[in-house]
Amino acid sequence: MRKLLEKISRHSFDHPWRMLTILVVILAALAFGAITNMKTPTNAVSIPGTEANVGLERMNELFPDVGKSSARVVIVAPASKTLDDYTARIGDMTTALTRVEGVNHAISPFDNPEAMSIDRKTASIQVQLTNDSQAIDQATADGVDEIIQKNRVDGLTIEQGGDIVNNVPHKILGPGEALGVAIALGVLLLTFASLAAAGMPILTAFLAVGASMAGLFGLSQVVEINSTTPALAAMLGLAVGIDYSLFILSRYRGYLMDGASYREATVHAVRTAGSAVVFAATTVFIALAALSVVKIPFMTTMGLTAAVTVAMAAIMSVTFLPTFFRLAGSKIVSKRALRKVKAAQARGYVPQHEDGKQKIWYRWGAFVTRHPIFSIIVPLIIIGLVAVPVKSLTLGLPTEQYAAESTTQRKAYDAISEGFGVGYNAPLIVVVENMKPVTAAEKAAAKQMLMKQTTQLPANQQLMERQANEYVKRLHLQQVATKIAQEDNVQKVLPTLASDDGTSGILQVIPKTAPYDEATKTLIYSLRDTDKQRSWADQNATFTVTGSTALQIDINTKLAHAIPVYLLVVVGLSFVLLIVAFRSILVPIKATLGYLLSVTAMFGALVAVFQWGWFGLADAPAPIVSFIPILGTGILFGLAMDYEFFLVSNMREEYGRTGDAKQAVLNGFGIGSKVVTAAASIMIAVFAGFISNDNRTVQALGFALALGILIDAFLVRMIMVPAVMTLAGKHAWWIPAWLNRILPKVPIAEE
Asked: Please, are residues 628 and 603 in contact by the beta-carbon 8 Å criterion?
């Protein structure tokens, strides 16, 4: 690998304009593909193969004309009136909604008695959309919103909810993210005192993110992209892209200060620091790409996209950074440092192995190595306190129940709860198939009964016939509904749709409790009980329970089963990689245990801030989005290993040079901690910038990773690692002779 990196760095340095041409051509091709094929990301979350998802698919197959997704417009009359006073306005609004592009049809509450409250003060217009929930168009949302705004007159309260609000795409980047990058630039300026040096990591990171995003959207016609995916990739790409460039750039400047020529310094930096970058990126890549083992399509796309972005950041760093070194020339250092570089180059290259005894990082390392027990206990106490809330972790999906009180979807939720009951916000869908067809005798008896009950005039004979047919085809479905209505916690069961032969249909089961109430979850399990299902209809009938709450249960179950497999793959592969890189058993064990401390504290803080609502960072306290734990677990593992590589590789290099294990820890820490401090500060700033994103999932993930990096870099890696390495002494570098013989030789430190 080192020989390959040497060749790449020499070619990149010697042929800068050729490399820039290649870069421009690649970016132009990717951009063209993105512009040609770009498809809007979705907020919808589904897991193929689960009962809830199968139920949605079957419902769309059985009744394709209903619409693939839905929304609701909730109307509340003022205190002194009922909605009957607004019949004409509601009718006109329903008609106008039907004409909006992307709307299949809208149903007035005056045509749907179940959508009107008993006191006739609250009602909802059911809006069925043409596209599925993965492809809600912004123009459709804007059209519906415009109609609502026009009709908020005469005391009417009108709010909206459903797919048209919750699944409209979010912005990928915003002002917060820009502020994070600006802070990163400031940290780099303080670190290098050179605008050219400070701008180089930022430029490399943006190129990596730009190339990855263009490639992603170029494939968006064939790959479904969740709205969190681009933000996650951008978040990681910016952070690791800056960090990887920073590490190589720091080594490059160090070689210049030792008297190496610009070309020689480039080759040395890419050969040594570039090796560590490749290994660090490989660890992150494994952690992200391994998300595919959970076999959840949207998470596989997230993981692979983020993994490719990290790989792109590493490739950009080792491939095009030497070109930028060549073009920047002496501007890579400040004027003051340039005089030292020229003097050193006149003397000739002599490795100085600077231990940095006059620097604050060396002095901090000296304190830690003098008091290793203290330096382990204090961080453990802090991490333990931060981690306490993790025992209350509750998982869920973003729903209207937990939206901020100021949002229209939360107001719609509250209005439905007050007017109808909380259960109307958690309707369960039961897809019934393979019932016995309605017999001719049943049809005749039903029609005869209806004729006796009706007082319709002969002029309405045709209308009566249609009503009779509707009643007849729902006959068996109604019988099932009557039996399900006797189950505990069921408020009402509505036979909403039925096939012409009466063998299939859709039941809407309204629970008495809220969407995320435990009693609602218990009801779902009860409805899925096969023994109970046999008592509702004949033996051949099948029942599939779906709906948003059922979907949430299925997602949580799937993820719960996937996390152990995922961790085994990630930790196992990365453990092997660390053994190969450091030729040590203790270092990988220490690195993994330190990560477990960091990830526990990360989720403890996430619960306190986003689930409990501490410090007001979250718009509204809510369960943690179901897939954040597995995403955060993988991402933090990869990034934690980054700092392990950057810090311990210097210690390994110093140990190889001096043979003194304790002094190697001190010298290596003094050399590497400056870069780790800058890199961690940059990554924290970039991740924290995403807390202002309008996507709640991205907000929570940005906070979690910023806090996780803060703990991992400054408590685990910068305090506990040197303390443990000091206590371990030369045993830190022990490896069985037989294992050492069979492992490939891939050093990541200067020999």
From this structure: no
Q: What share of the chain is helix, strand, coil (3-state, %, to 5)?
A: 70, 10, 20
Strands of the sheet with 69-76, listed across from one edge: 103-107, 122-129, 69-76, 157-162
Positions in the chain short of pLDDT 70: 42-46, 65-68, 132-136, 166-174, 352-358, 446-447, 450-470, 746-751
Residue-wise pLDDT tens digits, 464-504: 666 666 677 788 898 999 999 999 999 999 998 888 888 99
* Cα separation, 702 vs 170, whole angstroms: 15
**Strand 624-625 to 395-396 pairing:** parallel
Q: Kindly tell me the sign of the dihedral angle through the C-alpha atoms of 742, 746, 748, 750.
A: positive
Same domain for 357 and 473? no
Q: Residues, the chain, total?
A: 751
Q: Distance between CA 680 and CA 288 in Å, rounded? A: 20
Given 119, 146, 166, the domain boundary residue is 166
136 and 192 share one domain: no
Number of domain units in the chain? 4
Residue 397's domain is classified under what CATH number? 1.20.1640.10
525 contacts: CB under 8 Å, gap ≥ 6: none
Whether residue 695 sits in one domain with residue 647? yes
HSE-up of 326 (CA within 13 Å, CB side)? 20
The pLDDT score that the predictor gives to residue 725 is 95
**Distance separating alpha carbons of residues 105 and 63, to the nearest angstrom:** 14
Q: What is the CATH number of the domain that holds 152?
A: 3.30.70.1320
Place of tokens 């979690």: 704
Please check whether residues 596 and 684 belong to one and the same domain: yes
In terms of C-beta density within 10 A (0-12 exposed, 13-18 middle, 19 or more buried), how is residue 114 classed? Answer: middle
- Do the Cβ atoms of 395 and 387 come closer than 8 Å? no
The DSSP result for 362-399, as a single string, is HHHHHHHHHSHHHHHHHHHHHHHHHHGGGGG--EE---
Please tell me the predicted confidence (pLDDT) of residue 694. 75
Q: Residues 409-454: pLDDT tens digits?
A: 899 999 999 999 999 987 899 999 999 887 777 777 766 776 666 5
Please name which of 618, 575, 594 lies closest in space to residue 709, comparing C-alpha atoms: 594
CA distance 544 to 536: 13
CA 598/CA 435 separation, integer angstroms: 54
552 assigned to some structural domain: no
Q: Which helix (H) or strand (E) holds 157?
A: strand 157-162
DSSP state of 135: G
| 383 and 452 co-located in one domain | no
460: which DSSP letter? Answer: G
For residue 460, the model assigns a pLDDT of 56
How is 517-570 classified by DSSP, letter by letter?
-HHHHHHHHHHT-HHHHHHHS-TT-EEEEESHHHHHHHHHHHHHHHHHHHHHHH
Q: First-to-last CA distance in the chain?
A: 14
**Last-in-domain residue among 515, 546, 577:** 546
* Predicted pLDDT of residue 457: 45
| Tokens read off for 486 | 């006797």
pLDDT at 451: 67
Measure the CA–CA gap between 365 and 720, rounded to whole angstroms. Answer: 11
In angstroms, the CA 648 to CA 659 distance is 15
Q: Under 8 Å CB-to-CB from 427, ≥6 apart: which residues?
A: 508, 509, 510, 547
Task: Give the global pTM.
Answer: 0.83
200 and 320 share a domain? Answer: yes
Residue type, 142: D
Given this model, what pLDDT does residue 171 score? 61
Co-location of 188 and 277 in the same domain: yes
Residue with tokens 């300026």: 189
Instruction: Show the domain range for 437.
Output: 428-546
Do residues 322 and 372 both lie within one domain? no
